[in-house]
Design brief:
The protein is an alpha/beta fold and 412 residues long. It contains ten helices and 19 strands. The strands form three sheets. Strands 1-2-3-4-5-6-7-11 form an eight-stranded parallel β-barrel, surrounded by five helices. α2 (49-61) links the parallel β2 (30-34) and β3 (65-69). The chain is globular and about 65 Å long.
């Protein structure tokens, strides 16, 4: 791999201030967030104006960037609100706005021309002339449509100006509809995916009913498990990062503004580890790739595949079963403090766990390590038989690697 290429950005999503800080701690170069309106994750917690300002301040203090999503397909009724929203963002000062709608783009250039504009994947960016079009209007980055192959991205890179950046998704859930422009949610539930209110009907199990036999539901199935006709595997490009670097990708984007701090810490730190290794050694060997894949698997809840990057996907990237929302390894606590003299760790409980067992710790600067955890005490030094109160502060003697903000999980 050509190490003269600029190291690509690891771009992480965040649904809250807590998750933003976690993403920064665990290695993200930039974080993308949504305000309370005009992004495409209405069900996410999203950021108030105050939290957004605090998140941007925090990121900038750590030398990181924050991008704000405003990528809805806007109707006339939205335009006045968009204008007021951008006036607020002008004061807060994010590093870029993520936009798909030309009208919203125009408002942004009029109100806050000093803020960079990135063109969302929702704009269906599949050819180099589209990239040039947006660049001519003032965009500094374009996010590729998820339907492009690595070869197509390389071809786009060869035909666009050097100062126009390419961002592409490398990890997370895949939409059945082109560039995520889905109509199923609106049709079935009245909640518009293009306004941020997707109900994920692509994951549902379907039956058909014949017109003259009302109430008689016929299963749509290929075998006894059924067929989830819109249900795709998640995207994971860990094994293809060097190829994407060579193709000219400037920013590796992780999907998941609905995901937890634990999920983001696991995935972000894994991509960070791999990219740093590649740029230090000039390649990625089998051992490092397998290590990173095992790390990511500890936060996954669906099988993964390469999406469209190797060309049109076949049946192997489809998920022919119900999806399980349970992660493979459970996050149980986060380190809040550590006293070196007494070797006592202060933990905040996140999920149920039993004292006197082996647990696994990983952190911003700690590789996954198994540590035996002995007796655990509450704030009054009572020995606990079980830790089952979320947010409870507990203490335990710690004999392995540890740092503040490290996460602890069960071993499965």
């Amino acid at each position: 791999m050509d190490n003269n290429r600029k190291k690509p950005e690891v771009l992480a999503p965040a649904s809250s201030l807590e998750v933003l800080k976690t993403a920064v701690y665990y290695g993200a170069d930039a974080v993308y967030i949504g305000g309370e309106m005009y992004g495409l994750r209405a069900k996410a917690k999203n950021f108030s104006k105050e939290d957004m300002a605090e998140g941007i301040r925090f990121a900038h203090e750590h030398g990181k960037k924050v991008y704000v999503t405003a990528n809805i397909t806007a109707h006339d009724r939205d335009l006045e609100g968009v204008q007021k929203y951008f006036e607020e963002l002008k004061e807060i000062g994010p590093d870029a706005l993520i936009i798909s709608d030309p009208g919203v783009f125009q408002i942004a250039t009029e109100i806050c021309p000093e803020i960079d504009i990135h063109i969302s994947t929702q704009a269906n960016n599949v050819n180099y002339r589209t990239f040039r079009f947006w660049h001519k209007l003032g965009a500094t980055r374009v996010v590729t449509a998820r339907e492009l192959s690595i070869r197509e991205i390389a071809d786009i890179d060869a035909h666009i100006p050097e100062d126009l950046e390419i961002e592409t998704f490398v990890h997370g859930a895949m939409c059945i509809s082109y560039s995520g422009r889905c109509l199923l949610s609106n049709y079935f539930t009245g909640r518009d995916a293009n306004l941020g209110a997707c109900t994920h009907p692509c994951r549902w199990k379907y039956y058909i009913m014949e017109e003259n036999r009302p109430g008689e539901y016929l299963p749509v199935e290929e075998n006894e498990r059924g067929t989830y006709i819109f249900n795709s595997k998640d995207l994971c490009m860990i094994e293809h990062i060097p190829e994407l670097v060579e193709a000219g990708v400037d920013s590796f984007k992780i999907e998941g503004r609905m995901k937890s701090a634990y999920y983001l810490a696991t995935v972000v730190s894994s991509y960070r580890m791999l990219i740093d290794y590649i740029y230090e050694h000039g390649h990625a060997d089998v051992e490092i790739i397998e290590r990173v894949k095992k790390e990511i698997a500890k936060a996954e809840n669906r099988p993964t595949g390469p999406g469209f990057y190797n060309g049109l996907p076949g049946y192997k990237v489809q998920l022919y079963q119900d999806h399980d929302e349970t992660v493979t390894q459970e996050y149980v606590a986060i380190v809040q403090d550590y006293d070196k003299e007494s070797q006592m760790a202060t933990l905040q409980v996140k999920n149920h766990f039993m004292p006197n067992q082996d647990l696994e710790i990983f952190g911003p600067h700690i590789l996954s390590t198994i540590v035996h955890v002995g007796d655990v005490y509450d704030s009054e030094d009572n020995v606990l038989e079980v830790c089952n109160k979320p947010m409870q502060i507990v203490h335990t003697k710690w004999s392995g690697p540890i740092e503040v903000d490290a996460m602890i999980r069960k071993i499965r």
